UniProtKB/TrEMBL annotation:
Residue intervals passing through the bilayer: 42-66, 91-109, 121-144, 173-194
Entry keyword set: Membrane, Transmembrane, Transmembrane helix
Domain of life: Eukaryota
Lineage, opening ranks: Eukaryota, Sar, Alveolata, Dinophyceae, Suessiales
Protein name: Uncharacterized protein
Entry keyword annotation includes Transmembrane: yes
Length: 620
């Protein structure tokens, strides 16, 4: 997916830089104090007052950095976690400390012994403030970790992987935040206890030097951990080691012909011929656009015969176009061909018609979006929303046709055009389900034009129909892909994701995605917009659906197809893990879509998404 992940520090590094600069300035004040001459001089008194202010603001600035980082977690998690309490503690202590600073300055400048004990209050307040902040951080981050409990999520799902990843980062963040607080509190409490002694001691001098020189390096080390330099940037899904494509492994899950037990499909010459025939079909982007401009009542303006007058680019699905245009246009006498075989170039040599890219899409989505995704891929764009807008505009397809003709000519394998619909679905809609059921509603919608509501006319051709076995053209994606990988070294797989992400719920599409992934075929995903899964999005419904997806819940137009696909999967759990890797893994389709900008923010958002997915999976 051609999208870069932008990183920003959300103020963490700039805030730390200011803290380090202030520490350096404080150390220089100490040197000036040593060189300022008499202890009752004006310069000495000014330096003493400045040092007191510095010792006040530095620890509270450190608390301010904790507050800022906790605010980032709150922003990502969407709930208050105590940053407001840290702010109140910080400003309350600062108010008291400024009064104490005035008293200490008066005591040190005018040698007022009676006020000598005020310094104990100074250090005690700083110690208590750091301890209170540490407790707030621990309680707040514990809430986030509890919400992202991996045990509430399905094993192997991306949501569970993200929950584990976010908890690891948040625990690391918790240590990095509370460690300086605890160390500071210990040092300040020790200094407060030694203040009871009127005579300066070696231990007191060491502690005084430590709180100035130890805490800045400690803050720097913790900053490295907060920025997560030692953690992976994305959660990863663990897969079992896959064998090569030729071995009897997950890559052959979809190869077996369920209707012919024990028969190896590539041994069958009929199966072989069907695979070879399918692999030799394709169409260019220009041919796809020329077909597109013929759709609708104004299609005749292009000079060719208009087809499918009911076509509406914003309502008609690919299923509508297949039934209303592709099947009628691909009928040849009393039989029929794949639409790709009806094109003028279909008569040239097989090598000239081999596809460069195989396309996965769902027939329930807009046909406009399928065409837009293919055109966007040909134009090397990383989303297809703007192309869809141009296609739907008058004359837009013609302008896009001129643009793609200037690009290198690529050929695409699209099942709607490259599978012979006359050898399968042209004369029926499958067996009628039980009226009133959800499956009946989907079946009934599939046999009606989305725009007009009319039932599609059936094709009266006499072509024999095959829904399984060696002559079926609808179950050979994996075999065809293996053959094409041998013939086309640069073969790619384009995944045209629809607006509602229904592609990931279609059984055949899911099977294609996993097979392509396991075969190491380069995959490209095109979304309507790259913001569809933006990490800042408030609506987590799509994430919940994808991150807990299982093949058991996928659907197919024919229930027989769904059951056949499930029957070919020996281990559904491992298949689901592979499916999650296909979508979210390190080389998955949506590997960058849910990456956070700042890693603190990313960890909190991951925890929030995991909690949302757990709530969705548990139901009401």
């Amino acid at each position: 997916m051609a999208r870069e992940e932008h990183q920003q520090d959300s103020g963490l590094l700039s805030q730390a830089s200011r803290y380090m600069m202030l520490c350096f300035f404080g150390q220089q004040l100490g040197l000036v104090r040593l060189a300022s001459g008499p202890h009752n001089g004006l310069i000495f008194n000014i330096v003493v007052a400045a040092q007191l202010l510095m010792y006040t603001f530095l620890p509270l600035m450190s608390v301010g950095m904790v507050q800022r980082r906790l605010e980032l977690v709150e922003r990502g998690f969407g709930q208050p976690l105590g940053a407001g309490m840290v702010a109140k503690t910080r400003w309350g202590v600062l108010s008291v400390m400024l009064v104490v600073d005035g008293l200490l300055s008066y005591s040190m400048i005018f040698r007022v012994v009676a006020l000598h004990g005020v310094s104990r209050v100074f250090y005690s307040l700083l110690a208590v403030a750091n301890l209170v902040v540490a407790v707030i951080v621990i309680v707040g981050l514990a809430r986030v970790c509890a919400a992202a409990d991996p045990g509430r999520l399905r094993t192997g799902s991306y949501a569970q992987a993200e929950a584990i990843w976010s908890r690891a980062l948040l625990r690391q963040l918790c240590v990095a935040l509370v460690l300086p607080c605890f160390v500071s509190a210990a040092l300040f409490l020790a200094e407060a206890s030694l203040e009871w002694s009127n005579e300066p001691s070696l231990a007191y001098n060491i502690l005084s030097a430590s709180d100035q020189n130890l805490l800045p390096p400690l803050e720097s080390i913790c900053l490295f951990f907060i920025c997560v330099f030692f953690q992976p940037e994305h959660p990863e899904i663990c897969l079992k080691k896959q064998n090569s494509m030729s071995n009897t492994s997950a890559s052959q899950i979809l190869d077996a012909d369920a209707s012919s037990p024990g028969e190896q499909p590539f041994i069958s010459s009929s199966w072989d011929r069907t695979v070879q025939s399918l692999s030799a079909r394709s169409l260019e982007v220009g041919e796809l656009l020329e077909f597109f401009v013929r759709l609708g009542p104004s299609g005749g303006a292009s000079g060719a015969e208009a087809v499918m007058p009911s076509y509406d680019p914003w309502r008609s699905t690919t299923n509508d176009v297949v039934r209303g245009a592709i099947i009628p246009l691909s009928r040849a006498g009393n039989f029929g061909l794949a639409y790709a075989n009806c094109l003028p170039r279909a008569t040239v040599s097989t090598s000239a018609t081999l596809p460069d890219c195989m396309v996965s899409h769902t027939w329930s989505a807009l046909f406009l979006d399928l065409v837009a995704a293919v055109v966007a891929d040909a134009l090397e764009l990383d989303e297809y929303g703007k192309v869809a807008q141009r296609l739907a505009a008058p004359g837009g397809a013609r302008k896009l046709l001129q643009e793609v003709q200037r690009k290198s000519c690529q050929r695409y394998w699209i099942c709607a055009f490259c599978v012979n619909q006359h050898s399968g679905i042209c004369n029926g809609f499958g067996s009628e389900p039980t009226p009133g059921s959800d499956h009946y509603s989907r079946w009934d919608a599939g046999r009606r034009d989305t725009v007009s509501g009319d039932v599609f006319k059936l094709c009266p051709c006499s072509a024999p129909k095959y829904f399984d076995g060696p002559l079926c053209e609808m179950n050979k994606f994996d075999g065809m892909m293996g053959l094409l990988q041998l013939r086309q070294p640069n073969l790619r797989h384009l995944v045209a994701v629809d607006r509602r992400f229904e592609l990931f719920s279609r059984a055949w599409c899911v099977a294609e995605l996993v097979q392509s992934y396991l075969s190491n075929l380069p995959q490209t995903v095109l979304l309507l917009s790259n913001r569809a899964l933006d990490v800042q999005a408030e609506d987590l419904e799509t994430y919940n659906f994808l991150a807990t997806l299982t093949v058991l819940e996928c659907k197919a137009s024919r229930e027989e197809d769904r059951l056949q696909i499930l029957a070919k999967i020996p281990d559904v759990y491992e298949f689901d893990v592979q499916l999650q890797a296909v979508i979210f893994g390190s080389r998955g389709l949506l590997r960058n879509a849910l990456a956070g900008f700042d890693r603190v923010d990313a960890a909190a958002r991951a925890a929030r998404r995991a909690a949302s997915a757990a709530a969705a999976s548990e139901g009401p």
